[in-house]
Amino acid sequence: MSIRAIDEAPLSRFHRKLTWACAGGPFLDGYLLSIIGVALVGMSNELHLSTGDESLIGAAALVGIFVGGLFFGAVTDKLGREAMYTIDLAVLVGGSILSVFATETWQFVALRFLLGMAIGADYPIATSLLAEWVPNRHRGRLLGVLILAWYVGAAAAYVIGYAMAEIGGSGTWRWMLASGAVLSAVILLLRIGTPESPLWLVNKGRTADAQKSIQKALGRTIPIQQLVVAAAEEQSAEHSRFRDLFQGVYLRRTLFCGIFYMCQITPMFALYTFGPAILGSFGLGEGNSSNLGSALISVVFVLGCVPALRMVDRIGRRPVIVWSFALMVVPLAVLGGGSALPIAVVVTCFCAYALFSGGPTVLEWTYPNELFPTGIRATAGGVATSISRIGAAAGTYLLPISLDRLGIGTTMLIGAGITLVGWVVSFLWAEETRGRTLAETSALPGAARPATADRDRDLERS
C-alpha cells in the first residue's frame, strides 16, 4: 500500500525536522553505549570491579536491546509509532538519572539492561515512522542519516568523557553517566508533537485520522475515498502477523536483515565498548588519551557513511552492501598481525574499516523497513535488531576475555571471519529496492503490482 501524496512529496521543512527528531534516538544510543566504555575506568577503580563485572556491565545494554527490539517492535505495530516514540525517550531519561546513584554491580547491570530495552525499542519506532513519511527518492539517504547520528553520538561520548576525565579525573564517571539524562531530555522535547504515521493509521482503518495527519504535516488534503481504497488494500494483505516473519520469502528476508546487521555490528560494538583497551593493546595511547583515539575512529565512521548515503539512492542498495562487506574484511585481516604491527598500519586499518563499513551501516535500518509491509514493519525492524544483538552482546562480553587469552591479533581475525559471513549473506540474499515505493519493496516476488498509486491518480483527477 502506498499514498502518492507521501511517496512523491517534495522534501520539506517537516521532513527535515522529523529526520532530526528521529536521529535523536540513535544519537543517544551511540552516546549511552559509548560513554560506559569511558566511565568503566573510573567505575572499576572505585567499585573494585572484576573483569567479569566489566563484561556484564558492557554487555547488559546489548541484551536489553535484544529484548526491547523483539518485544517493542511488535507493540509499535499495534499501538502506533507516535506514542512509543516519546515513551522510550522518557525511559532513557529516568534510567540515566538512576545510574548516577547506583553502587553495586547488579544495579548497573539492571539499569544498563533497562536502557538497552529503550534503545532497542527506539530502533524500530523511529525508523518505521521516518520510512513511512519520507518520499521514495530520499528514503535511503534519510534513513541512513539516523545511523550517522549514532556515530556522532559515540564520538561525542568519547570527547565529553575525555574532557570530564581531564578536568576532574576518573572520579567524574558518575557525571559522565548523568550527561546522558540531559541529552535524553533535550531529544524528548524535540519529539513532542510529531504526527502519527498515515500508513499505520490507514493500516488500522483510521482514514479520517490519516487525512488529518497528512494535512498537518504536508499541508495537503487527500480525498477520504483515496485513503479508504488504500485501507481496503492494506487490510486485505495476508502477511501482517508476527509468524509471517518466519515463513517463506519473509523468513529469508528476516534472516538476511538480522545476519548482515549482526555481522556489521558485532566487531563494531566491541570496538566502541572497549575501544580504549583495544587501542592500548596496540600501543596507541594509554589511559585517558586513548579516548581521543576512539573519538577519532568515530569521526572516521561518520566520514565513511557520507559517500554511502549518496550511493544507496544513486547506484542501489545491493552493490553498496556487497562491495562494502568485501572491503571491510581486508583491514581486519591485516590487524591479525597483532601488536607487532607499526602504529601507522594500525591507524590506517582502523580508518579503512571505518570507511568501508559505511555501506552496510547506512542500510541497517533501510532494508528492514523496505522489505516488510506496514502491519509488521516495526516488528521486522525489532526482530532484525534483536538478531544482531545476539552476536553483539556475545562479542562485547567475550572481547576482553579474548584480548586477555588469545591476544589482539587472533581477536581481530575472528572479527574478519564474522565480517566475511556478512559478505556471503549479502551476496546471496541482498535485494535491490532503490527508487521503489514501500508497497513495491515489501511485496512478495511475483505478486501483482500494488494498484494504489494508479487509483490515487484516478481519484485525484475525479
From TrEMBL:
GO terms for molecular function: carbohydrate:proton symporter activity. InterPro entries: MFS_dom, MFS_sugar_transport-like, MFS_Sugar_Transporters, MFS_trans_sf, Sugar_transporter_CS. It comes from the Bacteria. GO terms for cellular component: plasma membrane. Signal peptide: none annotated. Keywords: Membrane, Transmembrane, Transmembrane helix. It holds the Pfam family Sugar_tr. Residues 440-462 are annotated as: Disordered. It is found in: Cell membrane. It is a multi-pass membrane protein. Belongs to the major facilitator superfamily. Sugar transporter (TC 2.A.1.1) family. This is MFS transporter. It comes from Streptomyces spiralis.
